[in-house]
Structures are given as C-alpha cells and as structure tokens.
C-alpha cells in the first residue's frame, strides 16, 4: 500500500533532505490562518493553508535564514510533478518570493526555475541540491553574495523571533533588502515600491525593515512620511515599540533632530499640496539629511509637492508603500480616473515595478483579511432606477422630485435645473431630501436584516451638510425603532466624523466603544489609513470617480477583529461605486440581492479556561487575557505568540543557545520561568494550537526560530536516520537501547525522558537496559547526550 502524503514526507522526504545537508534550522513549514468564505451571507473559516517545505540558507549559525526555495510534497502514489502546478501558482503570485520551486513524491523530484521559466526532468531525490548549491544559484540570481557588506541587513535576525512576521511580510522585506543590496552593489539609486492590501501590515513591514537595517549598522537617519495626525500617531506607536526613544513624531514646533527615526506628516513638512512652500522641510533638514525614506500611501497625490522630500535626498534608500492595486479595472474616463492613472505612472517611473505585491484577494484567501460581500442598491425615487455614475442625470429625470440647493438650502424648481448633471456635479449642486431619507431607511433596514442596527458602520457622504442630514435621519430611525421595540437607546448612535467637524476626536470611540458611536457619517476623514478593525459596513452615499480613493475607502473594512468575531464586512453601494473594483478584488467578493434577509449570527461564546488562563474564542480568532505593564489585557493569540517568542529570543538569542539550555533541566526551568505568565505560555499555545503531540521544545523552536515543528514520534524517528552512521558503529544492544530511549521521548517528551525510572521501563530493559550503555558513560551523561542528538538539527 503506498505511503500517505504525511508518511511520504516523514519517511522519505525528510531523511533525503537531511542527507543532502538540509538541517532543521534551514527548513520551515509556513501556515496561513485559513481562507474565509461567505456562505448564505455568513462567513465561514476554512482549514489553514500550508506550504510543506520552505528551504532557507544562511552563511553562519547566528544569521537570519534567507528563503530560496519551496517544495510541495505529495504521496508516493503520485508522479513527482503532481504538486508542481500548485507550487508554481505560489511563485506566480510571488507570495513567497523564492526563485526555485520543487515538487516530489518522495522518490523523484522536479524543479521549476522562475528566472529561466524552465522545468527539469524527474531526478532521484538523492540528487536534490544541497544548501551550498542553492545558495550559489540564489546569489547568482539576485546579483550579490550573502557575504557582501550590502547583504548584511538580510542576515539580521528578527528581534521578536520569526513569529513577529507573517510569511508575506517576510517575503516583502526580503524583496526590498535584495533590491537595495543589488542597487548598492551596482552603484544605482535604491528605490523600491511595495503594494500590499490595507490591513496586511505595511507599517509593520516598514518598522521591521528599518530595524534590521539599523541592526546591520546601515541606518543613519530615517524619515517615515504619512498623511494626517492620526496616522502619525499610529506609526509612532509602532516605531517606538521597536526603536524606543530613537523614534520621534515630528510636529510643527519640534523637528526632532536628536532621533534617528522621524515620523512626519505631509502637512507638517509643508508638502501637502502643490502650492505649499515646503518651508518646514527646507528649514530643518538639509539635502541628503536622511539615509532612508519611507513614503506611506505613496499614491496620495500625482507626484505633487511631496516629491521634494525624495529629490532633496537622492542618495537615500527610498521606499514607497501603497495599498492601491497596480492594475485597476476602470471604465471611467473622468479626470479623477485619469489623475489616478498618472499617479500610478509616476510611482512606477520613480520606484520601478513593485518588488512585492500582496492584494486583498490573497489576504482573504490566506485568512488574514476579512471577506467582502457587496450589496448593490438602486434608489433614485420613481422613474429611472438610479443616477448613473458614468452618464449622470437629465433635467427630465428630476421632474416631480423635491430639490434643494446644496449651498443655500433654497428650494429649486425642476424647470430651473440644468439640462444635464454628471453624478458628481449633481451631488455638489443639488440635494434631494427624499432621496437621503430613502437611502437611510434602506440602509437601516439592511442593518436590521443582517443582525442589529448597532453595527460599526461608516457612510461616505458628499459634503458636511450631507453628513449632518444622514446622521440626523439615521438617529431618528434608530430612536423610533428603539421605542417600537422597547429597547434602550445607545447614544450617540450616528455621528458626523469629518475634518470640518474635527471628527478625529471620535475615532477612538468608533474603534473602541461598544455601547455608542456606531455609525460614522464622513466625507473623506475615514478614507485612508485609519485602523478600525471592528468596522462591519462601508456605505457609499456619494459618487466616487477615483479608483484609488475607492480602494482606500473599501480598505477601511478589511481588517479582522478577533475580539468581536468579525470575519467579513459588507459594502453597501448606493452609487455604483463598486464599478471601480479592480481585478484583484473580483475573486473574493460576494454579491447578494439587497432584499435577501439574514438571521443574526450566534452570540459570542463565554471565555474558556486553558492552563488556568482565560481565552475568548470567536469565529475570527482567539484572544488571551494576559498581563501587560501589570494590567490585565486581552490580546489575540497571534499577539500572544509574538510576546512569547520575543521574550524567548531575549533570553536565548539563537537556536543553538536555546537547544543548549533546553537539554539541562535546571537551565530549562529557569528559561521557562522568564516567559510570559510565569512560564505557562508555552503550554497555553500548545493547547490552543492543537499541538498535544509535540514537545514544548518544538512549540517554542517553531515560534521563535522558525524551526519546522516535529511531533514527538517524528522527532524520535528522526533520531534514527539523523544518527544512522553513528548508531551503526555501536553494538546492536547499545544502538537498540538508545532507540528505545528515543521511544520514551515519543511517549512523554523531554520530561518523560528525564524520569528517574526511564532505564527501568520494559522497552528500554528489553533492548539491553543500562548494561548496554555502561561503556558510554554515566546514566546522566547518556541521557544528556541522547537529548542533544534528539534535538540536533
């Protein structure tokens, strides 16, 4: 009977890779959170995604491993290239950013080389390339050696351990560092563009990039430029966590010249508009003041005044971040659409093609972004179904409808209206109070149909006065509903959140308040960058012509929110804004009939207790109640793993040091005592991740050092093939007894192997017992040596 896929990996592939020099620290299994699908209006999370083997190389033991290849392994019953198309799909998406793709059935393998586009004939697995082989080919592909000074940032370990990044973030960081090293090697300007969907962690990528560059001794001064004070505050918090007081926010009165990493807004620098004078920038920062510049949301303007930041620092490494897809499927020929096309052209001209792309469809497929359901609404009030976004509206369509001048509030007779209005011009010149009321009534009915009216929602309006009307109408609808249903009113329910109304003061309430501030009516304050993970609905009451603006608005809903259980969000489209959806978003978007009702989702489950710690479980993920600065705080399991891995790397910076301390019981106990929650954290993570068959060694080594975890049984099996040559030199009773000791590890892990009576177990005694080991030294020394070999790479 052919081996299963699991058996093929552990009985055939693993030993073959080991024989070719691929030690455990060079092999990583990458898992994703699991795709989110919307079925009958409800989100459903699928099983985790997985790549069998990500192969990595490193020139020295303490270096960060650099990914160079991936392997997709299938059962030995399949031909060797059975998994190649699946693996090539990863390559086509550039998800893992590696040049070499392999597929195997445990006996033969085939290789696809991304640079040449060629696929090899099947070869025996015993001829698989060694780490030195793939390193040499990788260096030839990227154009530099890992021993070069320019490559140093690539080899700097992640300070918080490998759990501090997701696989695509690591791929994006590598792509930037590879291009920078190549450009530096060739004496060319180092300019890089990263395109990642909103919510995928662009700021985190920027922080990790600059931290690793700084740790490599190559950062002099860095500037991170963003739009608006709220985004500066968010970015500063992230940079301060990594750089401490070496990171500082720039304000109009404080250029922060003593800090190494400055976080500034376009407005503070005086480069927000074409007619700005760049006075603050020119007065405080001479040419080539910065060695590294990161432009957040670099699609913000069509290379207007802010480009002076880059032009005054031509020697700096320049990195542009954008959430806007490079290819936008747009039929509009409006000025806004043409301006967006110019922005893309300008970015590509300056930065070049994105070195890494991660779009919203990939984020949803991986389970890192919320799934999106689009609900289209047709509301115009009698006659035509709606104002066409592209063709606008004629005077005859307005007959019999109540019209109000948008600026004076005066009634406008239909015969005094213009012959034709574009959709945008119509909204700027005229108001239709009946249409506002009808839209609000329909939206409120949608909220009721999908569970309850108290859903976190943002409504994009035309102007401040429109936002006022919408907020007032929704508040009235909510008040009448509460009275009718005998419910307590939670106020404020709907509120205006615009720049003119200083709405940023309400953002914290929109994010965090659970009994107020549910519906924000805005113009563009919430259109870019602001994190509101709990947002469940994005609503378009205004016409949008800019594809970039549209993607930014939709991006407000893409974040998951484990505490509330949010796995999906809805786009309610009353103005045909979703015609601007790019090709990247077509796949994961679900459309439904607006009249289709949905039952409320299940209530959140009460917390459970795992290893004495409270855990909340929701469809979107799990959260743990832990201590931060002496205060209880709920964090996601992902954040908790980061805390655990970061502390472990503080205590044992390298895998070799961790392994050395693990095999000594007293050292291991001391190490565990320094981890979060008095050492309970590893056991908590093991329980939550369903890793009961794994020793804590593998749980921790996987989190902090990127080791591919092995079950206790697989690690015991690996002991026999890793050390087959050495075991073959020993008398059979000795070799059998050592294998029996490894078997005790398979049953009970590290502590079971250290039990005082381990040599008296029937399996060990049958194999030869202590007598067979006497020539190897004292029992304690034998156990120590056995553990070292069990955990050896």
Detailed description of the structure:
This protein is α/β, with parallel strands linked by helices and 793 residues long. It has five domains: 5-142, Alpha-Beta Complex (tt1808, chain A); 157-358, P-loop containing nucleotide triphosphate hydrolases (Rossmann fold, 3-Layer(aba) Sandwich), CATH 3.40.50; 370-592, Rossmann fold (3-Layer(aba) Sandwich); 608-710, no CATH class; 713-791. Helices cover 37% and strands 18% of the residues. It contains 27 helices and 32 strands. Strands 1, 4, 5, 6, 7, 8 and 9 form a seven-stranded mixed beta sheet that branches. Strands 12-13-11-14-15-10-16 form a seven-stranded parallel beta sheet, sandwiched between helices. Helix 5 (202-215) runs parallel beside helix 6. It starts with a helix and ends with a helix. The model is unreliable at 381-385, 584-588 and 595-601 (pLDDT under 50).
Number of domains: 5
CATH superfamily of the largest domain: P-loop containing nucleotide triphosphate hydrolases
* Helix content percent band: 25-40%
Count of helices? 27
Taking Cα atoms only, what radius of gyration do you get, to the nearest Å? 30 Å
User: What do the pLDDT scores average to?
Assistant: 86
Describe this structure in a few short sentences:
By secondary structure, this protein is of the alpha/beta class.
Which descriptors would you attach to this protein?
793 residues; seven-stranded mixed beta sheet; seven-stranded parallel beta sheet; 32 strands; globular; Rossmann fold
What topology emerges from the helices and strands here?
Blueprint: H1 5-19, E1 27-31, E2 36-39, E3 42-45, E4 50-57, E5 66-73, H2 84-92, E6 100-104, E7 108-113, E8 118-119, E9 123-124, H3 131-142, H4 167-186, E10 191-196, H5 202-215, E11 222-226, H6 229-243, E12 247-249, E13 261-265, H7 266-269, H8 279-284, E14 292-295, H9 307-311, E15 317-322, H10 335-351, E16 356-358, H11 360-366, E17 371-376, E18 393-394, E19 403-405, E20 411-412, E21 420-421, H12 423-429, E22 430-431, H13 433-449, E23 457-460, H14 464-485, E24 494-496, H15 507-512, E25 519-522, E26 537-540, H16 547-554, E27 568-573, H17 583-586, E28 589-592, E29 608-610, E30 613-618, E31 621-628, E32 631-636, H18 637-651, H19 655-662, H20 665-673, H21 681-688, H22 696-705, H23 712-722, H24 724-728, H25 732-753, H26 762-767, H27 779-791
Parallel strand pairs: 5-6, 10-15, 10-16, 11-13, 11-14, 12-13, 14-15, 17-27, 17-28, 23-25, 23-26, 24-25, 26-27
Antiparallel strand pairs: 1-4, 2-3, 4-5, 6-7, 7-8, 7-9, 18-21, 19-20, 19-22, 29-30, 30-31, 31-32
Helix pairs in contact: 1-23, 4-5, 5-6, 13-14, 18-21, 18-22, 19-22, 23-25, 25-27
């Amino acid at each position: 009977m052919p081996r299963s896929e699991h058996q093929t990996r552990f009985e055939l592939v693993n030993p073959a890779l080991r024989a070719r020099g691929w030690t455990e620290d060079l092999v990583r299994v990458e898992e994703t959170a699991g795709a989110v699908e919307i079925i009958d209006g409800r989100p459903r999370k699928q099983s985790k995604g997985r790549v069998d083997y990500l192969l990595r190389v490193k020139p020295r033991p303490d270096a960060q491993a650099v990914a160079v290849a991936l392997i997709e392994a299938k059962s030995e019953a399949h031909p060797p290239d059975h998994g190649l198309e699946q693996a090539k799909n990863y390559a086509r998406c550039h998800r893992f950013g590696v040049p070499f793709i392999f597929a195997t059935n445990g006996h033969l393998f085939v290789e696809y080389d991304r640079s040449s586009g060629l696929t090899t004939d099947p070869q025996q697995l015993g001829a698989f390339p060694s780490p030195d082989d793939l390193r040499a080919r990788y260096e030839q592909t990227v154009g530099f050696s890992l021993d070069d000074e320019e490559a140093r940032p690539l080899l700097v370990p992640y300070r918080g351990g490998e759990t501090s990044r997701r696989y695509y973030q690591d791929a994006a960081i590598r792509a930037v560092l590879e291009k920078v090293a190549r450009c530096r090697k060739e004496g060319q300007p180092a300019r890089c563009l990263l395109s990642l969907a909103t919510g995928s962690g662009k700021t985190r990528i920027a922080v990790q990039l600059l931290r690793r560059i700084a740790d490599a001794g190559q950062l002099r001064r860095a500037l991170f430029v963003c739009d608006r004070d709220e985004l500066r505050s968010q970015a500063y918090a992230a940079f301060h966590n990594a750089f401490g007081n070496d990171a500082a926010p720039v304000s109009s009165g404080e250029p922060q010249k003593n800090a190494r990493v400055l976080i500034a807004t376009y407005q503070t620098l005086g480069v927000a508009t074409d007619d700005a004078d760049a006075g603050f920038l020119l007065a405080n920062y001479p040419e080539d003041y910065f060695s590294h510049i990161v432009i957040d949301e670099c699609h913000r303007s069509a290379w207007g005044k802010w480009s002076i930041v880059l032009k005054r620092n031509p020697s700096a490494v320049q990195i542009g971040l954008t959430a806007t897809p490079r290819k936008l499927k747009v039929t509009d020929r409006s000025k806004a659409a043409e301006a967006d096309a110019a922005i893309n052209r300008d970015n590509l001209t300056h930065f070049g093609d994105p070195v890494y792309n991660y779009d919203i469809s990939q984020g949803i497929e991986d389970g890192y972004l919320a799934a999106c359901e689009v609900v289209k609404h047709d509301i115009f009030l009698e006659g035509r179904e709606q104002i066409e976004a592209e063709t606008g509206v004629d005077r005859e369509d307005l007959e019999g409808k109540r019209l109000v001048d948008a600026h004076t509030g005066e009634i406008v007779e239909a015969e005094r209206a213009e012959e034709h209005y574009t959709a945008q011009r119509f909204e700027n010149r005229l108001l239709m109070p009946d249409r506002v009321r009808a839209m609000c009534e329909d939206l409120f009915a949608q909220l009721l149909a999908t569970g309850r009216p108290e859903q976190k929602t943002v409504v994009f309006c035309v102007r401040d006065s429109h936002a006022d009307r919408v907020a007032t109408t929704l508040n009235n609808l909510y008040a009448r509903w509460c009275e009718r249903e005998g419910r307590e009113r939670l106020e404020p329910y709907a509120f205006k959140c615009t720049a003119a109304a200083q709405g940023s003061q309400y953002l914290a309430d929109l994010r965090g308040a659970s009994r107020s501030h549910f519906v924000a009516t805005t113009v563009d304050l919430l259109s870019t960058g602001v994190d509101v993970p709990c947002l469940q609905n994005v609503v378009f009451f205004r016409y949008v012509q800019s594809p970039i603006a549209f993607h930014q608005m939709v991006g407000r809903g893409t974040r998951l929110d484990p505490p509330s259980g949010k796995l999906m969000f809805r786009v309610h489209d009353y103005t045909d804004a979703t015609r601007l959806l790019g090709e990247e978003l077509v796949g994961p978007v679900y459309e439904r009939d607006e009249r289709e009702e949905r039952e409320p989702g299940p209530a959140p489950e009460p917390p459970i207790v795992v290893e004495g710690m409270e855990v909340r479980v929701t469809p979107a993920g799990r959260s743990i109640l832990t201590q931060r600065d002496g205060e209880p705080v709920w964090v996601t399991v992902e954040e908790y793993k980061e805390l655990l891995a970061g502390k472990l790397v503080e205590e044992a910076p390298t895998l070799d040091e961790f392994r050395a301390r693990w095999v000594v019981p007293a050292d291991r106990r001391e190490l565990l005592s320094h981890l979060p929650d008095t050492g309970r954290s590893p056991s908590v993570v093991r329980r939550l991740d369903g890793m009961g068959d794994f020793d804590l060694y593998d749980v921790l080594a996987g989190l902090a050092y990127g080791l591919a975890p092995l079950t206790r049984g697989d690690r015991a099996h690996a002991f026999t093939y890793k050390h087959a040559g050495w075991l073959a030199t020993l008398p059979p009773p000795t070799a059998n007894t050592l294998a029996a000791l490894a078997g005790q590890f398979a049953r009970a892990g590290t502590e079971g192997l250290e039990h005082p009576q381990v040599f008296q177990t029937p399996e060990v005694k049958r194999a030869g017992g202590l007598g067979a080991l006497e020539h190897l030294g004292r029992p304690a020394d034998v156990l120590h040596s056995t553990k070292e070999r069990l955990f050896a790479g």
